[in-house]
């Protein structure tokens, strides 16, 4: 009976530790939590002027100055597009997490949810590589292509208090 109990306890500990976040992942999550402003969106790796629709939502110009909020307790948050021009203003709710890519790169991933925290995108979401993350700044990027040519979209945030 004692041997079975020890085996059961070891199995529970092993299961609990396999489901927990790594120390690095917890650090990234903790650093992301809070309020951010998306200062600008830039493009690397290709020349020319770009006008793109980001996250299947609005153009890159509409994202400039957008306010982002990341809550830790239930991994939800939002971003708010400011009014102006062709921008469809308003708040979009998200569920977010940090993904360990496995090659030393961590990613911020998110998908859209409604007010009741239900997925509204059919499980589809977005992943952005975390390039810089500290108390004041966050730089994210994602690789894509334009007319078959590779390009990197860079998102520069600053902490908002």
Report on the structure:
- It is globular, with a radius of gyration of 19 Å.
- It has three helices and ten strands; from the N terminus they run ααβββαβββββββ.
- The model is unreliable at 13-21 (pLDDT under 50).
- With 161 residues, it is α+β, with helices and mostly antiparallel strands.
- It has one domain (22-159): Lipocalin.
- For the secondary structure, the number of strands is 10
**Order of SSEs, N→C?**
HHEEEHEEEEEEE
Number of H- or I-type helical stretches: 3
CATH architecture name? Beta Barrel
Structural shape: globular
The average pLDDT value, as a whole number, equals 84
In the CATH hierarchy, the third-tier topology is known as Lipocalin
Number of domains: 1
Name the poorly predicted regions: 13-21
Main beta-sheet annotation: 8 strands, antiparallel, barrel
Rg over CA atoms, rounded to whole Å, is 19 Å
Task: Summarize this entry quickly.
This protein has about 160 residues and is an alpha+beta fold. The chain has helices spanning about 1-20, 25-30, 60-65; strands at about 35-45, 55, 60, 65-70, 75-80, 90-100, 105-115, 125-135, 135-145, 150-160. This is Lipocalin-like domain-containing protein.
List strands and helices in order, with pairings:
Elements: H1 2-19, H2 23-32, E1 34-44, E2 53-54, E3 58-59, H3 60-63, E4 67-70, E5 76-81, E6 90-100, E7 106-113, E8 126-133, E9 137-146, E10 149-159
Antiparallel strand pairs: 1-4, 1-10, 2-3, 4-5, 5-6, 6-7, 7-8, 8-9, 9-10
């Amino acid at each position: 009976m004692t041997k079975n109990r020890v085996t059961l306890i070891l199995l529970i500990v092993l299961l609990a530790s396999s489901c927990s976040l790594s120390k690095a992942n917890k650090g990234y999550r903790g650093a992301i939590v809070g309020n951010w402003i998306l200062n600008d969106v830039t493009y690397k790796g290709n020349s020319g002027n770009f006008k793109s629709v980001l996250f299947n939502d609005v153009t890159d110009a509409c994202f400039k100055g957008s306010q982002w909020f990341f809550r830790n307790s239930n991994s939800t948050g939002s971003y708010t597009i400011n009014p102006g021009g062709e921008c469809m203003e308003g708040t979009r709710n998200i569920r977010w997490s940090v993904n360990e890519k496995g090659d030393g790169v961590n990613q911020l991933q998110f998908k859209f949810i409604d007010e009741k925290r239900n997925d509204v995108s059919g499980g589809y979401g977005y992943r952005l590589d975390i390039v810089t993350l500290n108390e004041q700044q966050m730089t994210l990027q994602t690789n894509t292509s334009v007319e078959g040519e590779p390009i990197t979209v860079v998102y520069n945030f600053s902490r908002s208090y």
